[in-house]
Amino acid sequence: MVYFWTIIAYLMILIAVGAYRSKQVKNQDDFMVAGRRLSAKVLVGTLLATWIGSGSIIASAGLAYYKGFSALWVDAGVWAAIIILFLNAGRVRKFAQYTVPDILEARYNAAARVLGTIVTVIAYTAIVSYQFRAGGMVLNLVTGISIDQGIIITAVFVIGYTVLAGMISVAYTDVINGIIMVIGLIVALPFLLSNAGGWDSVISRLPETHFQPLGGLSLLQAAGYALPTMLLLLGESGMYQRFFSARDENTARRSVVGWIIGTIIIETLIVVLAVIGSALFADIDPEMVILQSVRYGLPALIGCLTLAAIVAVIVSTADSFLLVPSTNLIRDIYQRFINPEASQKQIVLYSRIVVVGLGVIAFIQVRFFEKILEMAIYAYTMYGVGITPAVMAAFFWKRATAAGGVAAIGSGMIITILWEVLGQPFEIPTVYPALIVSLLLLIGVSLLTPKPVEEKWQQFCK
Hints:
By secondary structure, the chain is mainly α.
């Protein structure tokens, strides 16, 4: 029970911080972008804790259980995307809006804003749903309750916590989560390695392919893991929302440096821990490898610390990905088209109501996918091919037109859904046909339609 009470104590601390920070929420800026006053240190913490969620702890670790270090292909897409985002973070902060659909309408048109919001809601509620499942898995491990019961408890906590204080609360608790996560993973490594009998023992117990760059994957399969994560992150609304929350452009840019260093360290640690765990524990659910390793392969004190870190990243990712689509629906639909004169009090109230509604939708989606990796790749692809090409073109291609942007967003969404419904014909990962169609329509339609006026691109491309 010591594991259970450690997690409960940690969650109580989060609630206390959230309740304290909720007093600072006075208007839309506070709830959605933390009053645009986050420092670089806080930004690094919130960027790290938001990105390193159950997609890394559960899904990537599960892939590492089967395929070894080739699981780093998933992370390689992330690292490439962060490097590119370094070039763009200052521009995003200078634009000083609230959401990615704000960018889409300013650069393209209102239809792009609406389509962007639809894609974000579909993809992000899927991401939240597998955070709920991951939370259920942790609670099942430490308490013995069913995974379904654990999912319900996780969902109720995350929804309630996000409702409390929006971005201003999420950002500061992410710093706590990030610190616990880094300490827990670093401390866990030598203990697990010792329990496995050292690195030579790990190597002797596992197939040679676990230590090869592709690990039995074809190059097409490896890229199929890297591309969705890269594309998601390049246009990821939660990260852009954090850049909007920075004090200034320089702060946004500096935070990316700390973010990539931390991400490389943490994601590599997760894969190493999963590989060691696969040598220690045979015949377990691959997606449970990190959880099993922590629960049964570490001393109680270290295990409690590391499990608290895992809960931290699940909560951080879930609340962040729940806040983004609620912001989109209020800012990009309600405030833009229904009630432009809404008061600040109304916006904050309705944002909180929408958080609850989207949380329920995410909870329902848990039933649609059996594996977290499947849910992650689907959600990453949906957003990455639907939103990212249009967002990147907004900042880096003056010739992109409104018609081209809308065509890219709509086609990316439709092809992703269609390819998944058809069961990925010819075993071709969904990201390939969806990305190809999205890019072809973005470029082709833009070139076939009149050039945009300078006012449309000058604030993005200069």
